[in-house]
Amino acid sequence: MLIYKNHYLRPELVGVSDFHLRERLFSSKLRWTFSCLPACMNALDLSGTKRLQSLVKIGHKGFRDTKLSSQLPQLMDSDLMIEENTEKYNHHAYEIAMDALSSLISRKKRGDSSVVGGKYKKLERMLMYIKILGLEEHISDLKIIHVAGTKGKGSTCTFCEAILRECGFKTGLFTSPHLIDVRERFRLDGSFRELSIVIPYSLALAHRVDISEEKFLYYFWECWHQLKENITDDLPMPPLFQFLTVLALKIFACEKVDVAIIEVGLGGTTDSTNVIKDPVVCGVSPLGMDHMEALGNTLGQIASHKAGIFKPQVPAFTVPQLSEAMDVLHEKADALKVPLEVVPPLDRKKLNGLQLSLSGDHQFTNAGLAVALCKSWLQTTGNWEKLFQHANLENNMPEAFLRGLSTARLSGRAQVVYDTSLTSSDKSGVIGSSSGDLTFYLDGAHSPESMEACARWFSSAVKEGENQLSISSLCPPFQTVGEICSNDHVQPVKNNSDKISKQILLFNCMDVRDPQILLATLVNTCATSGTYFSKAIFVPSISTYNKITSGSSAIPLDVPSKDLSWQFNLHKVWEKIIHGKENLCESFEMEIPESIQPHTFMHDDVSNCGPTDGRFSCSAVVSSLPLTINWLRDYIKENPSLRIQVLVTGSLHLVGDVLKLLQI
């Protein structure tokens, strides 16, 4: 276990190495040393008094939400400042910011139409927001890598960030969505998130976000206040993703990053990030059928949207695509005189024995694209020869590239997390367990193509053996089998090869998805590798589409009653796939009540379960995710001879909720 304490890079106080948000907001004696651009300098408050006034203004005229407005005077109360500790204050201030962000959500769920008032189109509004923040010139100075795609664009961007950081550049990375905390979207130099809670080492590795709460709040309120003061009936506050996009551009400009890697949110042509007019290089990751309600019902239409990020004569790279998509990409590139190059998957031999830090064979495609993008960026900016003019790279990649590819981290994509709550150490320091083993395999796959890749990865991962799986989740990829990381020390691990493995599916997806396609793809792909699920559990997510919470916010363990009709639909689809339509009673519904014992449901394998009277089926609906996690833990404690391998997939919301529960 590791304890992470806050540390700060910039801004800093003159003569003070560590400071707190409360002091920075309210002391009138503070001075700033901040190497920032003029536009950012104009945004800075040089006294705590002005910052306080800004926050009070926000509280009194910035929100229509009376509950949110009423919190601010309480926050400003002097007695509160004196008596409450900094940690509690910081948390309260951050939660208010999350409420403010939530007020920008214009849709209750995906698939709903987003209604934004005013007379301007999205990109017109974006340009106006940028002008209000004084960022026009500074965005053009950013040296940007812009990446679109259906699958793998986040992984590609993450590889790019790690590679260029290892080359010695100050990096900024903007990705979406976040899983636990919105600050995951903004990464500076790839450092760990400053955490004040005790978490397993595995989760610390996974959640790499470098913007502290204090720095995030500073930039957030500056953007919020400037935009709020300039809104009109024709130009309302930006919806959530547009706000986060301009916030990212402001952060990267003010922090003077050497390179900004920007992941497209949705599509490309009309995406909020497409206010970027002069990127250094563009990339398009693998394309597939997703977001058809916005991008079109054919692969060609989707490809046309993705190619919308191409800029005249700016080099672009893509990976092998289906002909329908590739033809459109080439057509768009030719029209803009864009030199478009198709990059093959990375050759494993070029890794010199190292492993990609992101698991799955599909990551070689993303890694190959990232390598091409980084090399092009270095060449275009004149840095390639400076860094590698004396290196022998005829058949090899630079060492910095290898370090980046083997250390990049992206949470919730082909991620393995060993449940450390069940582990213990004996007198000799050897880590073992008096119970069974519980391992979570997390992948936010939600399209047919990504589900197929997820199934191949999971089937391969569960066969690698428990010792190696513990290492992949708990340690950097260069650790040897039979060791486990704990508090930055290497300790031996007991061999648990005699345990019996069971694979469990924990699934949910949005109701705009086709569960018949997703689940059938998962089952069939796993079956081709000899992997079969003993049970499937369908559970609603904790997080909601219209509410943003912080990573440290409390998780409600007593979840109020929810409509489980969608989960029962998933349950029926699963049973039809496993048993066949002719064997399924349409009226059959199986819900696990809180009082039932885990072994009652888990005992039988697929061959012994069926929707017959008096027997449990191969799947069930559980009303609460916290209950499900505790339920699995109880079961594994009672069965020390078992190794339960849980695949969590179908929704990044579900993956994020599980990660948040595991970090408690």
UniProtKB/TrEMBL annotation:
Enzyme class name: ligase
EC number: 6.3.2.17
Annotated pathway: Cofactor biosynthesis; tetrahydrofolylpolyglutamate biosynthesis
Reactions catalysed, as given in the entry: (6S)-5,6,7,8-tetrahydrofolyl-(gamma-L-Glu)(n) + L-glutamate + ATP = (6S)-5,6,7,8-tetrahydrofolyl-(gamma-L-Glu)(n+1) + ADP + phosphate + H(+)
PROSITE patterns with a match to the protein in the record: FOLYLPOLYGLU_SYNT_2 (PS01012)
Top-level lineage group: Eukaryota
UniProt entry keywords in alphabetical sequence: ATP-binding, Ligase, Magnesium, Metal-binding, Nucleotide-binding, One-carbon metabolism
Annotated SUPFAM superfamilies: MurD-like peptide ligases, catalytic domain, MurD-like peptide ligases, peptide-binding domain
Keyword Ion transport found: no
Family note: Belongs to the folylpolyglutamate synthase family.
Protein name in UniProt: tetrahydrofolate synthase
